[in-house]
Each structure stands twice: as structure tokens, then as C-alpha cells.
């Protein structure tokens, strides 16, 4: 068998050619790759050299094919992206034309045409109702998306939607009351007297609140509108915007007469509704971040964007706060988020509590009146005893004077000494009467205070009602917890 000897120069040349190829293969141009590698001299007759040369050419062709396919793929991808962009633009244009075509048939457009036929004074109420409905629908959609995003089934998503978007009858009644108040069609404090079914249960508490709106002509808005120059139509006094009115009264700027006066909150509410007065200090009534300034913030309040209604546990009231603040408060157990339905039912319970508190305070008031009568009678009793003692003293002095005149043996000094004795004796008795009077009153007050404490202990077992001592007024008073 003949052995083929390949010169070292041939091996070296092939190695250099292959090394050069693999180092620069991807950077070569198409023309460079299409160039053929040729042999010269003795290599022309070498089978091994011919085989290596053939493999080099095959490798070049393989790389060229790969680059061509990659180039074609890139071009195709670019063309696809261009077609997608064109298709998306056409789709958006079609959607815009579709929306314009059906814009008159959307729920908002249809509702707008419905509201246009209503009196201007009540259109705002209808729009508030529409927005409340939209808020419920959006809540349902958000709940549905959340279930789907968490891998829930379609039935679970539908159930979540219906639960979140559901509007109960008591919610409609409550929100309609608030909407009417916000648009000056009803009195806020009157609406608070209605329960969740839209009814008023007449009891001592509700009757007393309704009586606040039974006004005479001097504070009747209709009379004041017809008689703007009547400055004495309501209780007048030296009042300024900074005046501190007595309990239950607030300062109001009377617009027709351009002065200030203290009136009840019910009267102030009526005056503001009819535009003849303006409450000076609205800090306790208006909420800066609420879109419903005439109704105190509650779970049905629609706050401005970025704010949410929470119940602050320490302040025991609702407020609109930033979402981030609400999250921090809830995490620190400082606040809670309450459902509208539960808020309404709690109001029903509170009405019963308010009536109980009212009746208890009436009972306490009667006890105080009876105690005042007992005090007065006790004072009259001891005042009469004191007066009788003074009469006896005068009679003793009179009798001694007659004795001094009729008895010539009594000297002036003896008469004077005996007068002093009589006066001292009766003065001691009068002091004793005053002391007995003071002690009797003190015993009466102690007995009454003990009775009130027993009454407070009895009611303080109630988780919703408490009776406490009000030091500013020096009286016991019932209140809801």
C-alpha cells in the first residue's frame, strides 16, 4: 500500500487558511465568501488537499446560507411589524368611528337626554344617582378582574361582580336622601330621622327634633324673603362673626339685613337653604375633601380622586383621607373601612339608642326638677323656722321692755344685761337653725347624688348608653357610647 506523504508546508498552509476563515467568517462580505480557494503546485494532485478544500467551500456555503436566511427572517419581521402597526392604526380608527356612530346610544348619552326633560332644580339629584350606579358597576368590574387575575373561574368572577355591584334598597333610600340634601331639596337633620325603610318612628326624640322646624314668622324664611327690612324678625343682639353663642345656637350672617345673629341649627339650615343666611363657622359641618359638603362624610360619600372614606376609631367619625394614609391607619388599627349597608343599619340602631337617651335625660330632668322642688320646700321650711325664731326674740324683748316699765325696781343695767342675754340666746338658736338648714340641704343633695349614681350604674351596664357627670354643667347626663 502506497503511503501519501503531505509536505509540512501544505499542512501549515491549510491550518493558516482554516484559522483565518474561522476568525473572520462572520465579518466577511458576501463577495468574500463567494470567492473560491484554489491550490497550486504539488497540492493540485493531493487527494487530501482536495478534500480539505472541498470542506472549506462547503463550510463557506453553509455560513452564507445561514446569513441569508437570517437576513430574510429579519426583513420578514420588519414587514410584519409594519403591517401590525398599520392594522392597529386602522383598528383604532374603526373603533373611533364606531364610538362616534354609537355615542348617542351609550347609557350616559341616553340618561342625559332623559335628565334634560326634568326641572333644573332636580337634575343634579338624577346625575348623583347615575354616578352612584357607575360607582357600583366599576366596583363590580374591578372585583371580576381581580378574580380572573388570581386564576378564578368564570362563575367565581361573575359571583364577585354581582356581589360588588349589588345595590340594596336601603342603600338607594339612604343615598337619595343624601342627594336631596346636597341639592337643597331637603333638610339634613330631618332626613336623619328617617330609618332605612324611609319611615319616621314617632317617639319623644323624633318629635322633639321635628318641633325644631316648627318656626314662627320671625324666623320663617318665606317671611324674611318678603320682608327683608325687618331687622327685628329674629332675636337680635350685639353679635359679631366671633360671637360664642349659647349651646344649640350658631352665628349666622343674615344677608337681607347684613348683620349677625345667633339662631338654632335648624333655623340656620333653613336660612341657608333659602339663601337668606350663611353659617359663619362651617368647620363642624363641611368636609374639605368631600364632594358632598352638606352631609357629614360617610361610607356613601364620593371623595375626590386619590382619597378614600375611612372611619377613625379614636375620633369616632368618618373622613376622606389619602389612600396611602388609609392603608397606614388600617395597618396600625387606627381606622376601619365600613360598608354602606352596615352603616345604614347601624343608623337604625342608633335612632333607637338616641330615643332611649332622650327618654333617660327626660327622666333625669324630672328628677332634677323634683330635687329642686324638695330643695325649695326645705329652704322655705327652715326660713320659716328662722323667721319664727326672730319673732320670738322680738316678743321676748318686748315683754322684757313692758316688765321694765311696770317694775320700777329693775335698773337700766339689769334691763340691758337681760336684753343681751335674750339676744344671745336667740342668736344661738338662729345659728343652729341655719346650721340645721345647711345640713338638711347637704343631706338632701347627698341622697339625690347617691340616687343618680345608682341610676348611672344601672344604665352603664348597657353597652350602648352611659350616664356621666358633666362637671361644666354640674349635672348627670345620658349619652350614647
3D structure, described in words:
With 481 residues, this protein is mainly alpha-helical. The protein folds into four domains: 8-100; 107-165, no CATH class; 169-335, no CATH class; 348-480. It has helices at 8-24, 30-34, 47-102, 107-116, 120-149, 154-165, 169-182, 188-191, 204-211, 221-226, 265-274, 323-331, 340-406, 412-459; strands at 249-254, 259-264, 277-279, 307-312, 317-322, 335-336, 465-470, 475-480. Helix 4 runs antiparallel to helix 5. The longest helix is centred in the C-terminal third of the chain and has 67 residues, at 340-406. The chain starts with 7 loop residues before the first helix and ends with a strand.
Amino acid at each position: 500500500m502506497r503511503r501519501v506523504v503531505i509536505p509540512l508546508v501544505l499542512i501549515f498552509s491549510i491550518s493558516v487558511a482554516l484559522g483565518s476563515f474561522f476568525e473572520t467568517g462572520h465579518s466577511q462580505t458576501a463577495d468574500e465568501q463567494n470567492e473560491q480557494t484554489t491550490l497550486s503546485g504539488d497540492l493540485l494532485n493531493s487527494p487530501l488537499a482536495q478534500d480539505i478544500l472541498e470542506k472549506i467551500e462547503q463550510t463557506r456555503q453553509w455560513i452564507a446560507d445561514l446569513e441569508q436566511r437570517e437576513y430574510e427572517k429579519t426583513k420578514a419581521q420588519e414587514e410584519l411589524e409594519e403591517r401590525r402597526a398599520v392594522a392597529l392604526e386602522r383598528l383604532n380608527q374603526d373603533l373611533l368611528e364606531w364610538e362616534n356612530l354609537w355615542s348617542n346610544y351609550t347609557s350616559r348619552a341616553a340618561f342625559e337626554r332623559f335628565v334634560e326633560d326634568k326641572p333644573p332644580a332636580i337634575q343634579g339629584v338624577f346625575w348623583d344617582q347615575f354616578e352612584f350606579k357607575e360607582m357600583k358597576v366599576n366596583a363590580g368590574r374591578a372585583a371580576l378582574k381581580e378574580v380572573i387575575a388570581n386564576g378564578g373561574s368564570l362563575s367565581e368572577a361573575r359571583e364577585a361582580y354581582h356581589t360588588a355591584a349589588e345595590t340594596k334598597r336601603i342603600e338607594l333610600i339612604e343615598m337619595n336622601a343624601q342627594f336631596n340634601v346636597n341639592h337643597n331639596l331637603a333638610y339634613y337633620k330631618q332626613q336623619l330621622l328617617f330609618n332605612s325603610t324611609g319611615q319616621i318612628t314617632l317617639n319623644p326624640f323624633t318629635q322633639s327634633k321635628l318641633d325644631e322646624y316648627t318656626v314662627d314668622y320671625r324666623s320663617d324664611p318665606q317671611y324674611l324673603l318678603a320682608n327683608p327690612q325687618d331687622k327685628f324678625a329674629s332675636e337680635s343682639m350685639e353679635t359679631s362673626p366671633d360671637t360664642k353663642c349659647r349651646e344649640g345656637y350658631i352665628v349666622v350672617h343674615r344677608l337681607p339685613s347684613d348683620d349677625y345673629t345667633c339662631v338654632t341649627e335648624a333655623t340656620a339650615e333653613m336660612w341657608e337653604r333659602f339663601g337668606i343666611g350663611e353659617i359663619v363657622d362651617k368647620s363642624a359641618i363641611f368636609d374639605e375633601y368631600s364632594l358632598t359638603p352638606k352631609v357629614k362624610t360617610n361610607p356613601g360619600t364620593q371623595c375626590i380622586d386619590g382619597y378614600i372614606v375611612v372611619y377613625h376609631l379614636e375620633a369616632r367619625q368618618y373622613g376622606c383621607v389619602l389612600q396611602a394614609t388609609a392603608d397606614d391607619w388600617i395597618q396600625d388599627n387606627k381606622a376601619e373601612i365600613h360598608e354602606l349597608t352596615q352603616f345604614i343599619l347601624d343608623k337604625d340602631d342608633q335612632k333607637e339608642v338616641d330615643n332611649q337617651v332622650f327618654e333617660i335625660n327626660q327622666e333625669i330632668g324630672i328628677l332634677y326638677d323634683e330635687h329642686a322642688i324638695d330643695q325649695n320646700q326645705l329652704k322655705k321650711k327652715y326660713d320659716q323656722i328662722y323667721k319664727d325664731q326672730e319673732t320670738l326674740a322680738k316678743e321676748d324683748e318686748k315683754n322684757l321692755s313692758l316688765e321694765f316699765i311696770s317694775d320700777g325696781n329693775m335698773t337700766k343695767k339689769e334691763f340691758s344685761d337681760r336684753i343681751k342675754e335674750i339676744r344671745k340666746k336667740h342668736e344661738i338658736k338662729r345659728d343652729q337653725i341655719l346650721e340645721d338648714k345647711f345640713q338638711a340641704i347637704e343631706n338632701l343633695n347627698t341622697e339625690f347624688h347617691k340616687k343618680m349614681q345608682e341610676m348611672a350604674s344601672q344604665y352603664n351596664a348597657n353597652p350602648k348608653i352611659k350616664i356621666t357627670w358633666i362637671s361644666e354643667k354640674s349635672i348627670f347626663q345620658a349619652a350614647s357610647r
